[in-house]
Amino acid sequence: MAKVAVATSDGFTVNEHFGHAQFFRVYELNADGYEYAGIRDAVAVCQQALGHDTTRFDKIIELLSDCDAVLVNRIGEGAAAYLIERGVRVFEVSGTIDAVLTRLKL
């Protein structure tokens, strides 16, 4: 079974930029599809006045450490590289959470 974290502002679509996400919905994927496993509150890593703060990236990585992938609508190149270097699989996708998770093969 795999776990996936989804950046969403409305709980229905993958519509949030990684750096702006204030929470992630977590889903467990299984042979029958997927099921909702909870919500993880986060502090947005991209603060307009401060720019990127890698300590916040590290907190998100820790928060989602049991997840096999993170699904976002957008992520900056620097943020994606930082996560990937630390073993986090991150995917830019769009659509409803249901449609994306139904198509997802990890």
Task: Characterise this structure.
- The chain has a single domain (2-103), classed as Nucleotidyltransferase, domain 5.
- It has 3 helices and 9 strands.
- 25% of the residues are buried.
- It has 106 residues and is an alpha/beta fold.
- The strands form 3 sheets. A 5-stranded mixed sheet has the order 4-3-1-7-8. It has a two-stranded antiparallel sheet with strand order 2-9.
- The protein has helices spanning 54-63, 77-85, 97-103, and strands at residues 2-7, 13-14, 23-30, 33-41, 46-47, 51-52, 69-72, 90-92, 95-96.
- Helices cover 25% and strands 36% of the residues.
- The longest helix is centred in the middle third of the chain and has 10 residues, at 54-63.
Could you give a short description of this structure?
This protein is of the alpha/beta class and 106 residues long. It has helices at residues 54-63, 77-85, 97-103, and strands at 2-7, 13-14, 23-30, 33-41, 46-47, 51-52, 69-72, 90-92, 95-96. The protein has one domain (2-103): Nucleotidyltransferase, domain 5, CATH 3.30.420.130.
What brief labels describe this structure?
alpha/beta; 106 residues; two-stranded antiparallel sheet; Nucleotidyltransferase, domain 5; globular
Q: CATH superfamily membership, which one?
A: Dinitrogenase iron-molybdenum cofactor biosynthesis domain
CATH topology: Nucleotidyltransferase, domain 5
What CATH architecture do you see? 2-Layer Sandwich
Q: How many domain modules?
A: 1
- Report how far apart the termini are: 10 Å
Helix percent band: 10-25%
Please provide the count of β strands.
9
InterPro entries: Di-Nase_FeMo-co_biosynth, DiNase_FeMo-co_biosyn_sf, NifX/NifY_domain
Domain Dinitrogenase iron-molybdenum cofactor biosynthesis: 13-104
Pfam family, one: Nitro_FeMo-Co
Protein name: Dinitrogenase iron-molybdenum cofactor
